[in-house]
């Protein structure tokens, strides 16, 4: 054993001197070759271990670490790591040699390590980090993609953040990175970063194949006024009482006639009723293009020669007032992941106040935007706007200061906060199904790509009876921590805004802390699904000792039991994605729709395949007319959901819609599960029928680890199975 430690120490000294030479030549310290620790650790036996020179290689392993302190613990699969060219580490007299060339370092290809002095070959997947290779048992591609990000942050180097696309959130982001003692790259970086911070959308940089991006694909499109209204409307059909926090809405121009008819009927039934409506452009932001009306004839439907896409909603005429002013809440919500669904809510938010005392809408004051619209970008131009360094005064205040003031008046703040949390979770459940379709389109399973997270801005209004109402959800909430101020006549400059800085820097900083690739969250198993534990229960690293506690609170999956029954449309989306057929596609063609009907056995004598084709054509044609800018032909998710509701109503006529949908989902999922069981039994019987030499071919031949031989082997197996199949049938008959 002493000889073993002597050999290790000699090799360590050689590797250290090699690393020092590299530093002198100007090699970036973050991309240095990792140096093995002088201590050898004994690891527990691993089922995937390989016998080396007649001994069990799993009994002893050399733990390799980066220089400095590690950001994360080494996982089970982190075994022997190698130097830049070759590093031979002695294992009880046997030497493992791992030559690593530049052309070898491609993620996702199986590697083989030849063991000197033996005829053994250590097989497994290889991952590259800098110029060394980590060997571990083969995993599926999605696990590899996720763990690849976690393995980047090792001891000795900070987390790297690409901020070249950050735009208006740049100053808050820089302060957050400085507090965390991470490393920023203002101009980008040729090597991969751990986190990429985009200012607008996921596609700000399309060349990212690893790490984490702060935008989800499709989030901008999903949170447009029309798409959000459609998503919530679908949930209102299934759960009308649960989704009563969103005002009644009509989509223009397609529902203009319906809107006019309904309002006319309301006024005819009761002449004293004279409701007010607010019109919001589909792609508008910062209050641009918003106006109030009291009669459908006041709608501005055309912009030039084109119809204007917009949403018209019931106006909340009796909002809660403070200092006789209308206000709304800007709440920051972190969507940490889609699968599993993880949602965090910031404990602190902003309240934006109007700058004119509120009066109920009338024909005279409909155009008073400073009275009716709470948008900061509008009210900041009012002469009454007050910039204040205090959190409890001025035209922009912290949410906690407003809640404290309400509590002093006897308001049940816990009930208000609980209702707000429920609103956020229900809204997220409504938009997640479509986001999953966008996600699989941009990052199909099996394709290298980053993981995503995103900070959203929820705009919420409290009514006079303290009921929260959702106004809209912003995919790109402003993270600016300064405001424009006139320092001289006609001269403006940006000055710091303490209220914005206190809230927004904390949100960004703690979002980064939650996404730290060195902190892999523990999880618990629930009903066969891995449920991540709340981040606040985890141990904090020494580097975070000086930081305040997290300002983000996990609300899902923490409250899974209360809200999981609402995720029906997400189950429909899973069926939709399964039968899309082509990876990277968002539309279902007629053949895929017929396959869905056949596989789930939804056709019968009363509903033939010809009827299925007619249903597909009718629904697809109607939805294509509502989305003229759509670049793809076929049935989208929302159209598929409508078809699914129709099929459920046709098959279970005696039930209400929600029970119809649940029953049809259970039927489809049961059919798919039974078919997958049949396929598994077929594959098992096929493998038993094969000669032993064929079954062990992929295990004994390392050349089959490349994609082309795998395809050839699978085709050979299929042909062999076809030849063996008739004999097997005859044998069964004879028996």
From TrEMBL:
GO cellular component, one term: ciliary basal body
Chain intervals with Low complexity compositional bias: 33-43
Any one Gene Ontology BP term: microtubule cytoskeleton organization
Positions of the UniProt region annotated as Disordered: 13-89, 518-544
UniProt feature, compositional bias: Basic residues: 64-73
Signal peptide, first to last residue: none
Composition bias, Basic and acidic residues: 13-27, 74-87
Molecular function GO terms recorded: ATP binding; tubulin binding; tubulin-glutamic acid ligase activity
Keyword set includes ATP-binding: yes
Protein name: Tubulin polyglutamylase TTLL11
Organism name: Perca fluviatilis
Taxonomic classification: Eukaryota, Metazoa, Chordata, Craniata, Vertebrata
